[in-house]
């Protein structure tokens, strides 16, 4: 019997580095498709040494390259993307990579008849939520080219499902963090800024009252969700992947101070702040994927602090 093979765009990135080892344990071969501009080459070489991972160093904007690399693949994971803050600075590149790239991967997956495609969508498709927790059927209001392209990706998957029978799941990731993340990453910049100050004996400075919140979900939990989505019996829907807990910026500062083990209080910089809050309704993830988050924010942040020493 032939070995199932996963086409993995953006497979040299942070979340992929935690996902691919699980895929290998479960008997998959992995074909990483990545332009390596931000990819971790040392990690890819280490994985390639297993004999079960190969790298196609190419760009998702080139449809022919995607079609060729998809040959012989039974499954696909599409992570290649341009980040939120970069999409605001350069909407042209963002639309080019995120929209054209999405389409090239989905079309190739449909043409080659892959059994399942898993798409990294984002909680940012909701915009500023009207209520918490955020449910998959809530109104979508994506605000930046990145968020718009994620919503568009979900709609395109629906098109290929209806016209070519493509089986897909779109995972709406909330605020991913964990070991190995680039420090300039949009959602972790607040973690890193606070940590830098705490370590040098300066208290973290919080704008407003620190009521803004995020749903921080650990990368190991994300990786498990991706593999569960690849193997789930149910398909063709978006699924929130978060913890269901909204951690305010003020709470985050306390958690990090405790993790470093120093005695200090955060400072508040009184000013008007647009308070946005996030927390995922994760019932669908439980029902469809049999998935639950296993790493608490306290545990994950403590680990981050230990490993960053």
UniProtKB/TrEMBL annotation:
Pathway: Carbohydrate metabolism; galactose metabolism. It comes from the Bacteria. Coiled coil: none annotated. It holds the Pfam family Epimerase. Residues 9-242 form the NAD-dependent epimerase/dehydratase domain. Belongs to the NAD(P)-dependent epimerase/dehydratase family. This is UDP-glucose 4-epimerase. It comes from Yinghuangia soli.
């Amino acid at each position: 019997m032939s070995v199932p093979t996963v086409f993995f765009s953006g497979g040299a990135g942070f979340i992929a580095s935690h996902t691919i080892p699980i895929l290998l344990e479960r008997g998959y071969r992995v074909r990483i498709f990545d332009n390596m501009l931000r990819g971790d080459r040392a990690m890819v070489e280490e994985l390639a040494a297993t004999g079960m991972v190969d790298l196609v160093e190419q760009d998702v904007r080139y449809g022919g390259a995607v079609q060729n690399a998809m040959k012989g693949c039974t499954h696909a994971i599409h992570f290649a993307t341009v980040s939120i803050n970069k999409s605001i600075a350069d909407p042209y590149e963002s639309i080019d990579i995120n929209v054209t790239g999405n389409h090239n991967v989905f079309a190739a997956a449909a043409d080659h008849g892959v059994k399942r495609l898993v798409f990294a969508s984002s909680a940012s498709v909701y915009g500023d939520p009207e209520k918490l927790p955020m449910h998959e059927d809530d109104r979508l209001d994506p605000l930046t080219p990145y968020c718009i392209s994620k919503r568009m990706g979900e709609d395109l998957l629906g098109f290929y499902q209806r016209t070519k029978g493509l089986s897909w799941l779109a995972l709406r990731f909330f605020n991913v963090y964990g070991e190995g993340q680039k420090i300039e990453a949009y959602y972790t910049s607040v973690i890193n800024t606070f940590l830098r100050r705490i370590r040098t004996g300066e208290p973290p400075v919080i704008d407003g009252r620190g009521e803004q919140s995020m749903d921080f979900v650990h990368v190991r939990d994300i990786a498990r969700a991706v593999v569960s989505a690849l193997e789930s019996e149910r398909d063709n829907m978006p699924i929130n992947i978060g913890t269901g807990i909204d951690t305010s910026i003020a709470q985050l500062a306390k958690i990090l101070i405790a993790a470093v083990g120093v005695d200090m209080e955060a400072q508040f910089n009184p000013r008007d702040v647009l308070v946005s809050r996030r927390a995922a309704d994760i019932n669908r993830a439980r029902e469809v994927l049999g998935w639950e988050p296993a790493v608490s924010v306290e545990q994950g942040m403590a680990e981050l602090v230990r490993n960053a020493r």
